[in-house]
Amino acid sequence: MDKARVQELVRRRITNRRLPLGRAVGVREMSGDGQPCDACDVPITRGETLVLAIVSLEWKSVRFHLDCYRAWDAERQTLFSDNGRARSGR
Known about the structure:
Layout: H1 3-15, E1 24-31, E2 49-55, E3 60-65, H2 66-79
Antiparallel strand pairs: 1-2, 2-3
Helix pairs in contact: 1-2
C-alpha cells in the first residue's frame, strides 16, 4: 500500500477513534504472525516486522506494520497539541 493511502487511512481511523491518539509508551518489534494491522487491515506476515505499541492515553495495545506505525506516529503528532488535546480544524 502506498504511503499517501496509509496516511489517509491512519488519519481517518484516528479521527473516528479506531486508532488511539496518545503516544506509545511501550513499543516492541517482532516477526509478523498473520494477524491484521490496526491501521490498514492487511495481515502482517512472518516475513514482515510487526510493531506492537502500548498507547498512554487509552492504555490500549495496537498492532502495525512498521511503515503503518511510522505513519500513525507522525499523524498523531500532527493531530495532538502540546496541551494534550486534539487540534481543531481537521
